[in-house]
Amino acid sequence: MTALVLLDHEEGRIRKSALSAVTAASQLGDVHVLVAGDVAVARAAAAIPGVAKVLHAADAQYAHELAEPLAALIVSLAGGYDQIVAAASAVGKNVLPRAAALLDVQPIPEVVSIVDAETFVRPIYAGNALATVRSSDAKKVLTVRGSAFDAAPAEGGSAPIETVVPATNPNVSEFVAVHLSDSERPELESARVVVSGGRGLQSEEKFHVLEPLADKLGAAIGASRAAVDSGFVPNEFQVGQTGKIVAPELYLAFGISGAIQHLAGMKDSRVIVAVNKDPEAPIFQVADYGIVGDLFEIVPALTEALN
Amino acid sequence: MKIVVPVKRVVDYNIKPRVKADGSGVETTGVKMSMNPFDEIAVEEAVRLKEKGVASEVVVVSIGVQQAQDTLRTAMAMGADRAILVLSEESPEPLAVAKVLKAINEKEQPGLFILGKQAIDDDMNATGQMLAGLLGWGQGTFAGKVEVADGRVKVSREIDGGTEDVSLALPAVVTADLRLNEPRYASLPNIMKARKKPTETLKAEDLGVDMTRRLTVVSVAEPQQRQAGVKVGSVGELVEKLRNEAKVI
């Protein structure tokens, strides 16, 4: 069996969650990857061990990974594959269900475990339950949750690169602009350490108190939905059911009460630290280490103690 | 321009879901049910577009059991003009829902479908994309901002590292993310008024749609619970634990 993995990328780098999708697909059989966009990304894809072939969609219509042309391309290539796989990233979640509909397949989103070629485990109800589902579709279309599979190594392979023939562009969509947060920090979903703030940070200004600590730990900064809704930080910082799902080695939660929807986004972290002034905050029920106290004293003290 | 907004009846977001003892699913009997929160945002956006004069009519559709009637009433109390209830078993799969909506499109010919980006029960996040695919239309998923002008819709989409703006030819499909708007509460007079608004009831099979499930649920289980750890008394103690016990720094 051979799987085709849509390998999405940002600013010329393959997403870590896409590398996790390669690992997941390799549990099903041989792996071919599809790269839409820059040739440098296709070359990087060719170096992933375990990738047997890179399909490169070089045509300009694929440059921004728009769903409409990309889904059409996947459908044109799908005949040779048993599975179509992508990370459950913004790109994967946008493109794959569309391709699945065109293939008359019910997609299986956010897979966290592969039981066999027909059977997959996926969280439902914000991760409050895990459903094991068996697909009767001849072809499987799935997105996989990055935090549930190790990322494939970036170096060591040397797969051939084949330029694919463009499919007919439905021509119903145009890319206008992209606005990415400038950040020297690691990507939230692939960071080893995440420092997160909640409503307890009180304001956009005060949220900056987390930065020296994040610098010290080489951490990404995250936030609860409450902090995002209060305008302390932009949307893309949100960790939770409707934001990013993270599973770092170390997750530090400051002033986050621990709503179910936030826990859904971080409870698979290896070590969780919670700092909250409310000793009854639900976050303490999942934290390995907790401190009850004022985060505005504890964060600077912790930053200092790491010197 | 007519806007169609599909809405789903789900377990209320304030209720902690309970896995059934036999592992066949999540308990929904005797549990408070509400409109999927993302669908409320979709209804609100459509009603606002009508209030701005961009849309002429807002039609809400629910595909499911008879009780989805309540969900449609809520949407009409928020400002939707009329409703279509398509009877089927509870919580059909996105592929089947997209096919029903495609049939609704033939009947209603809207300029825009606005959907919630995902339902909080099965967390599929697929129906809007699938509908757009079946119709061959553009899709503005995870919308944080929607502007209709000159026969196109510009959608600011929430993506992993920030936002992306796309421009779609109309008709198109938009799916609402969390921050598109804050849905209004239906006022009592509007709830009363909604009772007089018309609801048409159809059957999925009358629309010629095969609702057969492609996914069989083998089992549903509670995830492994994390054990609460220890509370430490000082920053010094925390650093010591992280270094020597957890070995993460």
From TrEMBL, chain A:
<comment type="subunit">
    <text>Heterodimer of an alpha and a beta subunit.</text>
</comment>
<dbReference type="Pfam" id="PF01012">
    <property type="entry name" value="ETF"/>
</dbReference>
<dbReference type="InterPro" id="IPR014729">
    <property type="entry name" value="Rossmann-like_a/b/a_fold"/>
</dbReference>
<keyword id="KW-0285">Flavoprotein</keyword>
<dbReference type="GO" id="GO:0050660">
    <property type="term" value="F:flavin adenine dinucleotide binding"/>
</dbReference>
<dbReference type="InterPro" id="IPR014731">
    <property type="entry name" value="ETF_asu_C"/>
</dbReference>
<keyword id="KW-0249">Electron transport</keyword>
<feature type="binding site">
    <location>
        <begin position="224"/>
        <end position="225"/>
    </location>
    <ligand>
        <name>FAD</name>
    </ligand>
</feature>
<dbReference type="InterPro" id="IPR029035">
    <property type="entry name" value="DHS-like_NAD/FAD-binding_dom"/>
</dbReference>
<dbReference type="Pfam" id="PF00766">
    <property type="entry name" value="ETF_alpha"/>
</dbReference>
<feature type="binding site">
    <location>
        <begin position="238"/>
        <end position="242"/>
    </location>
    <ligand>
        <name>FAD</name>
    </ligand>
</feature>
<dbReference type="InterPro" id="IPR033947">
    <property type="entry name" value="ETF_alpha_N"/>
</dbReference>
<dbReference type="InterPro" id="IPR001308">
    <property type="entry name" value="ETF_a/FixB"/>
</dbReference>
<dbReference type="InterPro" id="IPR018206">
    <property type="entry name" value="ETF_asu_C_CS"/>
</dbReference>
<comment type="function">
    <text>The electron transfer flavoprotein serves as a specific electron acceptor for other dehydrogenases. It transfers the electrons to the main respiratory chain via ETF-ubiquinone oxidoreductase (ETF dehydrogenase).</text>
</comment>
<dbReference type="GO" id="GO:0033539">
    <property type="term" value="P:fatty acid beta-oxidation using acyl-CoA dehydrogenase"/>
</dbReference>
<feature type="domain" description="Electron transfer flavoprotein alpha/beta-subunit N-terminal">
    <location>
        <begin position="3"/>
        <end position="179"/>
    </location>
</feature>
<comment type="similarity">
    <text>Belongs to the ETF alpha-subunit/FixB family.</text>
</comment>
<feature type="binding site">
    <location>
        <begin position="255"/>
        <end position="262"/>
    </location>
    <ligand>
        <name>FAD</name>
    </ligand>
</feature>
<keyword id="KW-0813">Transport</keyword>
<protein>
    <recommendedName>
        <fullName>Electron transfer flavoprotein subunit alpha</fullName>
    </recommendedName>
</protein>
<dbReference type="InterPro" id="IPR014730">
    <property type="entry name" value="ETF_a/b_N"/>
</dbReference>
Automatic annotation (TrEMBL), chain B:
<dbReference type="InterPro" id="IPR033948">
    <property type="entry name" value="ETF_beta_N"/>
</dbReference>
<dbReference type="GO" id="GO:0006355">
    <property type="term" value="P:regulation of DNA-templated transcription"/>
</dbReference>
<dbReference type="InterPro" id="IPR014730">
    <property type="entry name" value="ETF_a/b_N"/>
</dbReference>
<dbReference type="InterPro" id="IPR014729">
    <property type="entry name" value="Rossmann-like_a/b/a_fold"/>
</dbReference>
<dbReference type="InterPro" id="IPR002078">
    <property type="entry name" value="Sigma_54_int"/>
</dbReference>
<protein>
    <recommendedName>
        <fullName>Electron transfer flavoprotein subunit beta</fullName>
    </recommendedName>
</protein>
<comment type="subunit">
    <text>Heterodimer of an alpha and a beta subunit.</text>
</comment>
<dbReference type="InterPro" id="IPR000049">
    <property type="entry name" value="ET-Flavoprotein_bsu_CS"/>
</dbReference>
<comment type="function">
    <text>The electron transfer flavoprotein serves as a specific electron acceptor for other dehydrogenases. It transfers the electrons to the main respiratory chain via ETF-ubiquinone oxidoreductase (ETF dehydrogenase).</text>
</comment>
<dbReference type="GO" id="GO:0009055">
    <property type="term" value="F:electron transfer activity"/>
</dbReference>
<keyword id="KW-0249">Electron transport</keyword>
<keyword id="KW-0813">Transport</keyword>
<feature type="domain" description="Sigma-54 factor interaction">
    <location>
        <begin position="58"/>
        <end position="227"/>
    </location>
</feature>
<dbReference type="GO" id="GO:0005524">
    <property type="term" value="F:ATP binding"/>
</dbReference>
<dbReference type="InterPro" id="IPR012255">
    <property type="entry name" value="ETF_b"/>
</dbReference>
<dbReference type="GO" id="GO:0046395">
    <property type="term" value="P:carboxylic acid catabolic process"/>
</dbReference>
<dbReference type="Pfam" id="PF01012">
    <property type="entry name" value="ETF"/>
</dbReference>
<comment type="similarity">
    <text>Belongs to the ETF beta-subunit/FixA family.</text>
</comment>
